Amino acid sequence: MEMDKLKNKKVAIIGMGHMGKAIACGLLNARFKKENILISNSSQDNKKVTEQAEWIILSVKPLGIKELIEDISVLSKSKLFLSVAAGLRAAKIISYSHNKKQKIIRLMPNMPVAYGQGVIGLYANKNVSVLEKVEVIKFLSVLGTVIEVKKESDLESLTLISACGPAVVSYFISLFSKAGVRLGLSQSVAEHVALKTFIGTLAYLQRTGTSAEQLQKEVATKGGITEEIILSLKESNLFSLFEDSYKKGKAKIDKLQDTL
């Protein structure tokens, strides 16, 4: 009954980039009523959907948030903002709205929300009531796993791991595929095997409860082929390269916050 009530809530999604589309797709796949998901991608429609909706999902790029909020601020003072703008702190959104009581929940979803398999980081400012936060978490649960953080800075860590994650995972899948081609497989076969290997590994880990490190030990038996590959990766200091890449991502978030 509670979810039925939430499915009748009018929610506006402003901004139809990749993430806005993924959220809309996820809600529709979860059988939310199409007429209750209000979509906007233009200045005129932004005001219209803001007026009609209870919750406003801000899904435009961080550099476009200021103009958007200033445009709809008169209509949104008592409404709840759900911002997916990476790196944009709640205090900055408050300053744009000129409303110290603005209710803001920052979200950091990733692309698999389109199919109910996402990870959604969540941080609520002090203006959001406990009941409102519980409702939002329940609402978002149809899109995947919701992880609430108490410190806003922790949302940036989730951004790097979960939000950036699908692209990083896809990069590694492409490395598997390229390795397959170099070893003589056709492009189509290599791509299929790489993808299926990732899917199968995830299924095994989830169903058995085995940790990633434990599975490595089980497959990379002493003196075997897999062990040779893993040892070579460790000797090349792959983790340090990986860690350095994420440090650069963190620096990019910090720089973005300074410019907004």
Describe what you observe in this structure.
It is a single chain. This protein has a seven-stranded mixed sheet, with helices on both faces. The chain is elongated, with a radius of gyration of 21 Å. It is 60% helix and 13% strand. Helix 5 links the parallel strand 4 and strand 5. With 260 residues, it is of the alpha/beta class. It has twelve helices and seven strands. The mean pLDDT is 94. Helix 3 crosses helix 4.
Please give the structural blueprint.
Elements: H1 2-7, E1 11-14, H2 18-29, E2 37-40, H3 43-52, E3 55-58, H4 62-76, E4 80-83, H5 90-97, E5 103-108, E6 118-124, H6 130-140, E7 144-148, H7 152-163, H8 165-182, H9 187-208, H10 212-219, H11 225-235, H12 238-259
Parallel strand pairs: 1-2, 1-3, 3-4, 4-5, 6-7
Antiparallel strand pairs: 5-6
Helix pairs in contact: 3-4, 8-9
- Summing up helix and strand content along with how strands pair, one would put the structural category as alpha/beta
Termini separation (Å)? Answer: 41 Å
Question: Mean pLDDT, rounded to whole units?
Answer: 94
> How do the strands line up in the largest sheet?
2-1-3-4-5-6-7
SSE topology string:
HEHEHEHEHEEHEHHHHHH
**Which regions are unreliable across 5 or more consecutive residues at pLDDT < 50?**
none
